[in-house]
């Protein structure tokens, strides 16, 4: 994958990929907002494709992302909460599995930040809240200190 960004005028930049190009107009939409939109869109595509591959359909999909950033520079994401709302012709268990598969396995953008960002999510499926403020299994936001581990004698 290759992306080239070139300065256009003022605070406008053009991003070119192998497939297309688009204008980034700062400060109308900041690079961090584009980044967050990309993270959410990555998961949204999973939420359309996984059900389709199982002969199911997701409709009315809305994913709201809320980020808290560190106060000090480089102002990395500290926490990310994703609120999934959608309807489908699947049961709540299957709907929950789609979200978990996206978060834990398929969405490369979320998996890129999960070691440094505490990630949580909520799911409203067919109008019913089925998960609320669940923590991503591996999205701890910090490394886990396991302490000293003694080696087995040889």
Give a written overview of the molecule.
The protein is built from 3 helices and 7 strands, in the order E-E-E-H-E-E-H-H-E-E. It has 154 residues and is of the alpha+beta class. The protein has one domain: 2-Layer Sandwich (GMP Synthetase, Chain A, domain 3), CATH 3.30.300. About 3% of the residues have low confidence. Helix content is 29%, strand content 40%. Strand 4 and strand 5 form a beta hairpin.
- Mind telling me the CATH superfamily name? K homology (KH) domain
The CATH architecture assignment turns out to be: 2-Layer Sandwich
Number of helices: 3
Let me know the average pLDDT. Answer: 90
Major beta sheet, specifics? 4 strands, mixed
Oligomer: single chain
Strand content: 35-45%
Notable characteristics:
154 residues, alpha+beta, GMP Synthetase, Chain A, domain 3, four-stranded mixed β-sheet, three-stranded antiparallel β-sheet, 7 strands, 40% strand
Topology:
Layout: E1 4-9, E2 12-16, E3 21-25, H1 31-53, E4 58-69, E5 77-88, H2 92-106, H3 108-113, E6 118-125, E7 128-140
Parallel strand pairs: 5-6
Antiparallel strand pairs: 1-2, 2-3, 4-5, 6-7
Q: Would you kindly provide a brief summary of this structure?
A:
With 154 residues, the chain is α+β, with helices and mostly antiparallel strands. Helices cover 29% and strands 40% of the residues.
């Amino acid at each position: 994958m290759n992306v080239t960004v070139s300065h256009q005028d003022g605070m406008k930049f053009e991003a070119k990929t192998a497939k297309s190009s688009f204008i980034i107009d700062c400060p109308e939409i900041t690079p961090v907002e584009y980044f967050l939109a990309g993270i959410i869109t990555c998961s949204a595509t999973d939420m359309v494709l996984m059900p389709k591959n199982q002969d199911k359909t997701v409709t009315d999909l809305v994913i709201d992302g809320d980020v808290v950033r560190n106060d000090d520079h480089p102002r990395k994401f500290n926490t990310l909460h994703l609120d999934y709302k959608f309807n489908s012709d699947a049961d709540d268990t299957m709907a929950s599995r789609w979200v978990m598969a996206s978060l834990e396995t398929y969405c490369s953008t979320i998996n890129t930040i999960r070691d440094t960002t505490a990630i949580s999510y909520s799911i409203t499926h067919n109008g019913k809240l089925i998960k609320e403020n669940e923590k991503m299994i591996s999205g701890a936001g910090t490394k886990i200190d396991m302490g000293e581990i003694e080696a087995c004698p040889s």
